[in-house]
Automatic annotation (TrEMBL):
Binding site for Zn(2+) 1: H82, D93, H191
Family membership: Belongs to the peptidase M20 family.
Gene3D superfamilies: 3.30.70.360, Zn peptidases
Positions of transmembrane segments: none
Names of required cofactors: Zn(2+)
Keywords attached to this entry: Hydrolase, Metal-binding, Zinc
UniProt xrefs under Pfam families: M20_dimer, Peptidase_M20
Cofactor note: Binds 2 Zn(2+) ions per subunit.
Protein name: Allantoate amidohydrolase
UniProt-listed InterPro entries: Amidase_Cbmase, Bact_exopeptidase_dim_dom, Peptidase_M20, Peptidase_M20_dimer
One annotated GO molecular function: metal ion binding
Organism encoding this protein: Ectothiorhodospira haloalkaliphila
Length: 418
C-alpha cells in the first residue's frame, strides 16, 4: 500500500509566498512580533486556514490555531512553531514548522481518514524574543504571570501591553490561553537545525532527543577610568583587561565543568568611556551559557561566578551580574523519539539523533505534554540571516516524516503509542 504523502507543490508555494512577506531591501525578513510584517504574515496564515476549510481560533496570547475535527472533548495532536522572525531573518526559521503543520492538516483532511484525536497547527506568538521570547507557548503551558506580562518590553522601551493594545488586544488575556494538561495528546515540531551537523553529514532528518537549557547574564565590571599615557600598566584598574582574562578562561571552564553539548558565548561588549586614549573604567558584557543537562548548567554557573570573583579580586575590580533569563533543558519524549526514528527508516530516510542547541516552543510545551522534534538540514549551518536555506528535497522528506508520525498518533488505523 502506497503511503499518503503531502502535496509538496502546495507546501512549496506556501513557503515562497510567506517568504515575500516582510522581506526588506537587505533580503532579510522583518516580521518581529507585533510589527507590520508580523501582522501581514498572520493575516496570510489565517486566510490559508480558512481557505482549507479548517477551524480557525485565536487565543488570548494571539496564538493562531488551525484545527481539524475539533470537538473540544478529545485531546488534540498539536504541531507548531512561529511565524515571527529576528530582524533580517531567514524564510524558514519557525515558519517551516507552521507551514508543514498546515500542510499535514490539509493532507489528512483530503484523505478522509477517521481521527481518534483532533489535529492542531499553532503559530506561537513572539518566539524570537522582541518581548522576551517564547511568549505564546509559555501562555499555553500556563507559565505566565501578570507581573511577567507587565514587565515585558522591547529594546526601544515599548511594552508588550502597549504593542498588543495597538492591535486591539489585551495582553492580560494571555493568562486565559492556558491549556489543561489532558487537552493535548502530543506535540510535534519540525524546525531547521540552525547548525551544520546534518548538512555536513549529508543526513536527511534529525530526531531531537534533548533541547538545551540556558542562562544569560549581563555582567558589569567596575574599575577606574584613567589616562592611557600617564597611568603605568601595574597601577591600572582596567575593566577591559579583566574581561579579556575572563574570556580566556571560557574554554577551560567548559572543559573542566561542561559536556560535549556545552556552549558559552560573549556576544555583546560595551566599554566606557570608550575613548582611544582612556583606560576603560567600566565594561559590561553578555554571557550566554547552554547545555542539555540541568546539573551541568548549575556547575557551569558556579564555575563562571568563581572565575569572575577571582579575576576581579586580583585586578581590584568590582563586579556584579544580572540574570536576564534562565530556561531549563528538556528531554524529548522517548516514545516519540522512537516513533520518529521508526517512521524515518520506514521512509528510507537517513536520520540522526541529536540535541538542539537552540531554544524552541517545544521546550516549553514539554512541560505540558509529551513532545518530539524533527530537524531538517540548514545549508552550511546558517540561520537568523537572509542566507538561511534548506534544500527542497530535505523539506519534502521532513514534511512526509511529520505526516507519517501524525498518522500514527491521531488516526484510527495508526496504532497507539504505549
Amino acid at each position: 500500500m502506497t503511503p499518503i504523502r503531502i502535496n509538496f507543490q502546495r507546501l512549496q508555494h506556501d513557503i515562497e509566498a510567506l517568504s515575500a512577506i516582510g522581506r526588506d531591501a537587505d533580503r532579510g525578513i522583518h516580521r518581529m512580533a507585533f510589527s507590520e510584517g508580523d501582522l501581514a504574515g498572520r493575516q496570510w496564515f489565517r486566510e490559508r486556514i480558512l481557505e482549507a476549510d479548517l477551524d480557525f481560533y485565536e487565543d488570548g496570547a494571539a496564538n493562531l490555531h488551525g484545527r481539524l475535527d475539533w470537538d473540544g472533548q478529545r485531546p488534540s495532536v498539536m504541531m507548531g512553531s512561529h511565524l515571527d522572525t529576528v530582524p533580517g531573518g531567514g524564510p524558514l526559521d519557525g515558519a517551516l514548522g507552521v507551514l508543514v503543520g498546515l500542510e499535514v492538516l490539509r493532507t489528512v483532511k483530503e484523505s478522509g481518514l477517521p481521527l481518534r484525536h483532533p489535529l492542531e497547527v499553532v503559530n506561537f506568538t513572539d518566539e524570537e524574543g522582541r518581548f522576551g521570547g517564547l511568549f505564546g507557548s509559555q501562555a499555553v503551558a500556563g507559565q505566565l504571570t501578570p507581573a511577567m506580562i507587565h514587565a515585558a518590553r522591547d529594546l526601544d522601551g515599548i511594552t508588550l501591553t502597549e504593542a498588543m493594545a495597538a492591535w486591539g488586544l489585551d495582553a492580560n488575556a494571555a493568562l486565559f490561553a492556558r491549556r489543561p494538561r489532558d487537552s493535548i495528546h502530543a506535540y510535534l515540531e519540525l524546525h531547521i537545525e540552525q547548525g551544520p551537523v546534518l548538512d555536513r553529514g549529508k543526513i536527511s532528518v534529525g530526531v531531537v532527543e534533548a533541547i538545551t537549557g540556558l542562562f544569560k547574564w549581563d555582567v558589569q565590571l567596575k574599575g577606574q577610568t584613567n589616562h592611557a599615557g600617564t597611568t603605568p600598566m601595574d597601577m591600572r584598574n582596567d575593566t577591559f583587561q579583566g574581561l579579556a582574562e575572563f574570556a580566556g578562561e571560557i574554554e577551560r571552564i567548559l572543559e573542566e565543568h561542561g559536556s560535549p553539548h556545552s556552549r558559552a558565548t560573549i556576544g555583546r561588549v560595551e566599554l566606557k568611556p570608550g575613548a582611544a586614549n582612556t583606560v576603560p573604567g567600566y565594561t559590561s558584557f553578555s554571557l550566554d551559557v547552554r547545555d542539555t543537562d540541568p546539573d551541568t548548567l548549575t556547575n557551569l554557573a558556579d564555575a563562571f561566578r568563581r572565575t569572575l570573583s577571582t579575576m576581579a579580586r586580583r585586578r581590584s575590580l568590582m563586579f556584579e551580574f544580572e540574570v536576564l533569563s534562565e530556561l531549563p533543558p528538556q528531554r524529548c519524549d522517548p516514545a516519540l523519539v522512537q516513533l520518529l526514528e521508526d517512521k524515518a527508516r520506514a521512509l528510507d530516510l537517513k536520520d540522526l539523533r541529536l540535541p538542539s542547541g537552540a531554544a524552541h516552543d517545544a521546550q516549553i510545551m514539554a512541560s505540558l505534554t509529551r513532545t518530539g522534534m524533527i530537524f531538517v538540514p540548514s545549508l552550511e549551518g546558517r540561520s537568523h540571516s537572509a542566507a538561511e536555506w534548506t534544500n527542497w528535497e530535505d523539506i519534502e522528506r521532513g514534511a512526509n516524516l511529520m505526516l507519517q508520525a501524525i498518522l500514527s498518533l491521531a488516526t484510527e488505523s495508526g496504532g497507539e503509542l504505549k
